[in-house]
Amino acid sequence: MAVRLAQRLMKTQTPFLCRSYPMLVTKEKTEDVAHTKSSLQKKVTVTDIPQAQYGGRHAVTMLPGGGIGPELMGYVREIFAYCGAPIDFEVIDIDPSTEGNHDLEYAITSIKRNGVAIKGNIETKSQTLTEISRNVAIRNELDLFVNVVHCKSLPGIPAHHKDVDIVLIRQNTDGEYAMLEHESVKGVVESMKVVTVENAERVARYAFEFARQNGRKKVTTIHKANIMKMSDGLFLEVAKKVHKDYPELKHDNMIIDNTCMQLVSNPHQFDVMNMTNLYGTIVSNVICGLIGGAGLLSGRNYGDHYAIFEPGTRNTGTAIAGKNIANPMAMINASIDMLNHLGHKEHARVIQEASYETIVDRGIRTPDLGGTNSSTDVVHSILDILSNKRVNWPHGNFFCQN
Ligand code: ATP
């Protein structure tokens, strides 16, 4: 990984701020397709890799991960089977205690074959320096350069703030997650933060394009350019240049520490946020904490070819595993995102409506949302609501059955 990154950096020899880079415009209309052809993809030739589809059914890689991952995936499969969602899962368990990367390589090959994956958080138990985080390795290997978390309040959920509606757009492969650390002399450790024009532009472009296509008004770039003048300075500089192609949108910027304070005191001032990798994980956790916790929101990871869907805050939840108290909604929402991405809009819609009715109207909620229900109570309510709904899918009408 380090070697690949070094090779990539060596190719970029022109000084960052002197490089001119194209200002491109994508033409896609909807949020779902915005990622499928990034700005850079328009310039360089990238061939679309089709999603694996057999007889109208999509094959999707499922990586349950550790902690609560396997039980949450079980609920997703139960709901999909119940309403006839045309998805076949290729389930791959990655053993966190092994030192080798065989499982990981197999998982990456599977995602490359299928084009799409749903995943829980994968633990990396080994502390050896050569053993990198499997989650980061998957995102890097598949070049999933952007992570999108739509942080939208649900009515009636106990929360510090109501009516929050922020779209968080995070650079997903570079920044502080380069995992290039070394001890230069005894007692001195250095960690490299990598910002490239290419990836800063791709993520900024995604943020502005998303804002344009979804009727948003403002993009705020989050940084610490007052201290990290070169790295965050570049990220901010690139965002300002990309903004010139989106004159109808407002662009402002905010320092990460102030951002956390502003989020806690007045989150309604934010619309779309554009940020580097580490700030993204901090800010997504802050916002999720403000509007309902780790068990609610989903996150989407996109590159030019592949997409992975997962819970927004990427928690393992080991301490609550096997207790039937984990909130299944974040993973169910990830599965709804995945259905939408694959074009199974009708199945996505009915599951989304049944979930909303369960949590908001029926008030069936796990303890993290202030409820007393179990995970399976939530899932059974969703199945109960689905049993009354008729699902139309391309191969004719289908009634959910008890
Ligand atoms: P562990 O994985 O051992 O629980 P942790 O403290 O790092 O360790 P995370 O997995 O990062 O915990 O999760 C953060 C918090 O969010 C924990 O309190 C966890 O129980 C809670 N949490 C995460 N996912 C869910 C969920 N789906 N439902 C309810 N609570 C959750």
Note down, in words, how this protein is organized:
This protein has 402 residues and is an alpha/beta fold. The protein has 2 domains: 50-150 and 293-389, Isopropylmalate Dehydrogenase (3-Layer(aba) Sandwich); 160-164 and 180-275 and 283-291, Rossmann fold. 37% of the residues lie in helices and 19% in strands. It is built from 12 helices and 15 strands. The protein has helices at 2-11, 39-43, 69-82, 102-114, 134-141, 197-213, 231-243, 256-265, 277-291, 329-342, 345-361, 375-387; strands at residues 53-54, 57-63, 87-91, 116-119, 146-152, 165-171, 181-185, 188-191, 218-223, 250-255, 272-275, 298-302, 307-311, 390-393, 396-399. Strands 1, 2, 3, 4, 5, 6, 9, 10, 11, 12 and 13 form an 11-stranded mixed β-sheet that branches. It has a two-stranded antiparallel ribbon with strand order 7-8. It has a two-stranded antiparallel sheet with strand order 14-15. A hairpin with a 2-residue loop joins strand 1 (53-54) and strand 2 (57-63). Helix 10 (329-342) runs antiparallel to helix 11 (345-361) and helix 11 packs across helix 12 (375-387). The radius of gyration is 21 Å and the shape is globular. It starts with a helix and ends with a strand. 43% of the residues are buried. Residues 5-47 and 393-402 have low confidence and may be disordered.
